[in-house]
Every structure is written in structure tokens, then in C-alpha cells.
Specification:
By secondary structure, this protein is α+β, with helices and mostly antiparallel strands. It has two domains: 53 residues, no CATH class; 38 residues, no CATH class. It has five helices and four strands. The protein has a two-stranded antiparallel ribbon. The chain has a two-stranded parallel ribbon with strand order 3-4. A hairpin with a 2-residue loop joins β1 and β2.
Amino acid sequence: MKKNGEVYDFIHVNVIPPGNKDLLEGSYVIENVKELECTWRKCLKKQENYVIISPKELYEYIDRDKHKKLIKYLWYRYWMSLDEHKRRNSK
């Protein structure tokens, strides 16, 4: 949200597939805090402004008529097979 042209409120969203244990449980040490979520939360004053959701959860909330480019991006980023990625990028 903006007030007088300045941002005063926000939501920080990490879109992470739940099976991505390397990212979720990786080592991100800040003041002896390790996992990704704990590390981010340590950096924020307002804990309620931070959320981790899966790509599927994000997809469910998107207005498909208004955000067709985002839908396409999410499909390309999270659901397209590796073979399809390779085929499209080799053109």
C-alpha cells in the first residue's frame, strides 16, 4: 500500500514448491538461524507480512482473465516438463 507516494505496507511472498527441500531447509545463517523461513522472518518487523506458498496455491488465487501472462509464466516456471523446457530453449 502507498501513502503519500511511499510504501508503508507490503506482503513478502516466497513461492516455493513444497518438495523443494534444498531451498526450504538449506543453510541461510543469520544470527544462528538456519532454514529459509526463519531467516526471512528474522529480517522482518511484521511477521504477518511474510508467507510461503506453493505455486499451486498462488495459481488458485490468480484472476485468469486479468493475469494471463502470469499464468503463462507460472506454467512455464513450475509445471512444464524439463524436456519441454529444453525443446523450447533450443530453438
